[in-house]
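Is this the right way to post C-alpha cells for a design question? Let me know if I should format differently. Anyway, here goes:
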C-alpha cells in the first residue's frame, strides 16, 4: 500500500468523537434501535474471533467463507455490515448480488497474513518459478487472502482452500500438476502436505522479500512451494507452551489450529479448523480438560460456554487478534448510523475483473 493510500484509509477510519464519548449501554440501545428500523434489510455476519460486544448483535457467527456464503444467500439484506477483516468483506462482496452492499465497520481491520502476499510479489514469484519448473505448478490459496490473490490463482487454473478442506484440495491439486504453490500461510500448507504424505525435504519456502526459493533437499525433488507467510496469532503458540501443559496438566488434551507451526501441531493431540475445535469441545465429555491453541476471544467464549470442562488457552499470555479487534462497538454504531443517515461509509467493493477470476478459484473448491 502506498503512503497516499494509507493516509486516505486512515482518514476514512477517523471515527467522530461523539461515538467515543457514548457509554456502552447507550451504544447498545442505539444499535438495537437501528436493527429494528432496518429489519431484514440489514445483516450482521460476525467472525468467531470478534469481541463479545460485537458477537451479541450477530445474525450469524462463523468462519470467513461461511459468513460470505450466508450473506450471499440472504437475498433480503441490502446492507451487509461484515464484522471481520478486510479480505473477508471482499469475499462477501464477490459472492453477493448487485443489490447488496458490503461494509466494514473499521477500514483498518486487516489481516497480517493476507498482507504477506500482495499481487505484485506473487506475479514476480510466479514468473521466477515458471523459469525454474516450467508449467508444472498449480497455485492454491487459503481463503485468508486478498481478492487479488484469489483472482491470480483462479486465472492460473488453481483454487482456494479452507482449513477444513485443505487435505482434499491439495490431493486434487496433485491430480492436476506435479507441484503446488501454496499461499499465503506456510504453516497450513506444510501441515496439510505432511499429513497427506509429502515429506518435509520435498517442501521449499518462497521468500517474497528476498525473491528466492529456500530449500534443504534437491530442487528436482521439490513438490510443495510454501509462501513465506503466517498468522501472527497462531505462530505465537510454542513447543514450550505444550511442554508446560504436559507437565502441569497430564490429563489435558491439546487441540490447535493448523495455522500453528509444524512442531506445535505435531506435539498436539488434535488439530483442525475453527469449526472443528468448537465442535470437538462441544462433543467432549463433562470433566474433560482442554488446552486450546487458537485466538483468545474464541477460547474465552468456549471457557464461558462449557463450564463443565476445564479449558484454558495453550498460551495464557496470548493477545486477541489485534486487527480483528479493531471492530468495536463505537465503529459498529458509526457504520450503522451512516447507513440510516443515507451516507454509508466504508463500503468494500471488488472490481468486476478481479471478482470474475476469484469466483473461478472459489468455485473450483466448492465444486469438489
Amino acid at each position: 500500500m502506498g503512503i497516499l493510500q494509507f493516509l486516505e484509509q486512515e482518514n476514512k477510519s477517523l471515527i467522530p468523537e461523539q461515538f467515543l464519548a457514548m457509554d456502552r449501554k447507550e451504544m447498545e440501545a442505539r444499535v438495537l434501535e437501528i436493527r429494528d428500523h432496518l429489519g431484514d434489510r440489514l445483516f450482521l455476519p460476525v467472525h468467531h474471533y470478534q469481541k463479545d460486544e460485537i458477537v451479541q448483535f450477530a445474525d450469524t457467527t462463523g468462519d470467513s467463507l461461511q459468513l460470505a456464503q450466508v450473506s450471499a444467500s440472504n437475498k433480503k439484506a441490502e446492507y451487509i455490515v461484515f464484522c471481520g477483516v478486510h479480505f473477508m468483506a471482499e469475499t462477501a462482496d464477490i459472492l453477493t448480488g448487485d443489490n447488496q452492499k458490503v461494509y466494514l465497520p473499521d477500514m483498518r481491520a486487516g489481516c497480517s497474513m493476507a498482507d504477506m502476499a500482495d499481487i505484485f510479489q506473487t506475479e514476480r514469484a510466479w514468473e521466477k518459478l515458471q523459469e525454474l519448473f516450467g508449467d508444472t505448478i498449480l497455485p492454491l490459496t487459503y481463503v485468508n487472502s486478498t481478492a487479488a490473490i484469489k483472482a491470480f490463482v483462479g486465472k492460473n487454473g488453481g483454487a482456494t482452500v479452507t482449513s477444513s478442506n485443505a487435505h482434499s484440495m491439495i490431493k486434487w491439486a496433485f491430480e492436476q500438476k506435479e507441484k503446488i504453490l501454496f499461499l499465503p500461510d506456510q504453516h497450513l500448507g506444510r501441515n496439510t502436505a505432511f499429513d497427506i504424505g509429502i515429506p518435509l525435504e520435498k517442501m521449499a519456502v518462497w521468500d517474497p522479500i528476498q525473491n528466492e526459493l529456500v530449500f534443504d533437499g534437491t530442487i528436482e525433488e521439490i513438490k510443495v512451494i510454501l509462501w513465506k507467510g503466517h498468522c501472527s496469532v497462531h505462530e505465537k503458540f510454542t513447543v514450550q507452551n505444550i511442554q508446560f501443559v504436559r507437565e502441569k496438566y497430564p490429563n489435558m488434551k491439546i487441540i490447535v489450529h493448523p495455522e500453528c507451526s509444524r512442531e506445535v501441531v505435531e506435539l498436539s493431540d488434535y488439530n483442525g479448523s475453527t469449526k472443528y475445535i468448537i465442535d470437538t469441545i462441544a462433543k467432549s465429555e463433562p470433566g474433560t480438560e482442554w488446552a486450546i491453541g487458537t485466538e483468545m476471544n474464541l477460547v474465552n467464549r468456549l471457557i464461558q460456554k462449557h463450564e463443565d470442562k476445564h479449558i484454558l488457552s495453550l498460551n495464557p499470555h496470548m493477545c486477541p487478534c489485534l486487527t480483528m479487534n479493531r471492530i468495536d462497538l463505537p465503529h459498529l454504531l458509526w457504520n450503522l448510523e451512516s447507513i440510516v443517515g443515507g451516507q454509508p461509509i466504508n463500503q468494500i467493493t471488488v472490481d468486476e475483473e478481479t471478482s470474475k477470476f476469484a469466483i473461478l478459484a472459489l468455485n473450483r473448491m466448492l465444486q469438489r
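Format looks fine. Someone answered above. Worth noting: The CA atoms of residues 222 and 234 lie 26 Å apart. The chain has three domains: 3-110+324-350, 114-232, 234-313.
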